[in-house]
What does this fold into?
Amino acid sequence: MSVVRVAAAVLQRADGQVLLAERPVGKPWEGWWEFPGGKIESGETPYHALVRELREELGIEVEKAYPWLLRRFEYPDRSVELHFFIVRGWRHDPHGCEGQQLSWQHPAALTVGPMLPANAPILAALGLPSMYAVSNAVELGEQRFLERLQRALDQGLRLLQLREKHLSLESLERLAEQVLTLAQPYQARVLLNGEPETARALGMAGVHLSSERLMALPERPHDMLCAASCHDAQQLARAQSLALDFAVLSPVLPTLSHPQARVLGWEGFSTLVQGSSLPVYALGGLQKAHMEQAWQHGAHGIAMMRGAWD
Ligand SMILES: Nc1nc2c([nH]c(=O)n2[C@@H]2O[C@H](COP(=O)(O)OP(=O)(O)OP(=O)(O)O)[C@@H](O)[C@H]2O)c(=O)[nH]1
It folds into this structure.
């Protein structure tokens, strides 16, 4: 079966809502909802197809579009390869130039549907925020870390990795309880860097695997979020084949926590994440101000340890 290559756009407003379109009468899957976009013509790059499709379908001019995920899916009559972009800047108000109905929607609470079957993991990925903070109680001291965590939650942090490898199980339990108590009113999700069973026992939303654990794990846990640390193509491929929720790729820049590690640089990062079916956070020596650069290089967002608590 030949592969249909498609450019698809997640137009995202500052409030997080994304634009969905209903497939018009007469097309395959009519009445189903999708992200605006269409087939990549021969000789076109995915980006150029995106710009053309959004002009033709929505009457907008793309100003800021970032490469995001590649999703392969088998329909009964065709295989599709969907090149998703996140579009954060455009000129003119989108309207359905082909008579299609449009709707701005919160990815986690759609009020239109059904969505095309290929798109379920895309909606899940859109539920992940741009920033992923990694705890640093060992350097800050627990009290100061908890104060900084409270401040970060107030400022919008919604995803956190508790990574305190030096602690005994008893001390970890105590700290985890305090962290979860702070995170709960914000519905912020906390992942434990460790084993799935420990994460489950501590009531965490998920587990974050070390790269070593990632390579050894036969199957991902299905009752919680599951993410992993990756440093090369082989580990990223493993994270994709286990269908994890997301990966973290590091170190992008030199970092104090891993002074010996070979730095990827932004170009190395972007080469590795190109074509990823999973959202990938950039990590290593980053500050909040690196967000735009991370998006330009194909990252879902940035992960930070020291930078998250400044
Ligand atoms: N634009 C878009 N297409 C998607 C999404 N998800 C998804 O599976 N697709 C698939 O990607 C293909 C998009 O091609 P298209 O919209 O230009 O073509 P089409 O179905 O109208 O078919 P036709 O032009 O051959 O009649 C379709 O097979 C569609 O089912 C999505 O979110 N947006």
Remarks:
- The chain is about 30% helix and 25% strand.
- The first helix runs from residue 46 to 58.
